[in-house]
Specification:
190 residues, alpha+beta, 6-stranded antiparallel sheet, two-stranded parallel sheet, 6 helices, 22% helix, 33% strand
Length: 190
């Protein structure tokens, strides 16, 4: 099971914070991941309650900070060290006036935002199945706060469970348009 799948299944588990226990509490050294905000309680929705809600916004995640530390860690993990992401001095003179997050970093935060907004009850396992469409529609300057709006676009029965298609929109606090829109597929096995 991937880290994203674990995050979807167990919203309290903080896989990116080795200095914390598996309930998200700081360890003895008080370590926190960059941009960490204590999780809010996710709303719980039964898997069988979702079908009549197709076409509706189901959840909005709490705000999540995207600080330079997180951007730098993502650059190291992906070997994408383009100056617009990691060189603050050069980026100040660039088109955005400061560093910006990688589009794929913003995309990779969707499972965390989902897990902090929504817990689907009555399933034994949840897995990311993929994306039909993704667009990075505006930059995410370092220090931004993001949240996801999740609309259930489709629910399909599959062998052993259901496949949910989410229309995910990631907003930046104070932004005039979304920074990411995606059609995201998640499978839940019963």
């Amino acid at each position: 099971m991937s880290l994203c799948d674990l995050a979807l299944r167990d919203p309290q588990r903080r896989l990116d914070r080795p200095a914390q226990d598996d309930r998200g509490r700081a360890g003895a050294d008080g370590g926190k991941a960059p941009g960490y905000d204590p999780p809010m309680a996710a709303q719980t929705v039964g898997i069988h309650e979702l079908e009549p809600r197709v076409g509706s916004e189901i959840a909005v995640s709490p705000w999540l900070s995207v600080e330079q530390d997180r951007i730098d860690l993502f650059a190291r993990a992906t070997d994408d060290h383009q100056w617009i992401h990691v060189d603050a001095e050069r980026a100040r003179k660039g088109p955005f006036g400061r560093t910006i997050a990688h589009g794929f970093l913003t995309l990779s935060l969707l499972p965390r935002m989902m897990s902090e907004a929504l817990e689907v009850d009555g399933v034994r396992m949840s897995v990311n199945y993929g994306l039909n469409r993704v667009r990075f529609t505006s930059p995410v300057p370092s220090g931004s706060r993001l949240r996801a709006r999740l609309v259930l676009a489709k629910l399909e029965k599959i062998d052993g469970g259901v496949q949910l298609t989410w229309s995910a929109t990631v907003e930046r606090e104070g932004g005039d348009k979304p920074c990411l829109v995606a059609e995201w597929l998640v499978r839940h096995y019963l």
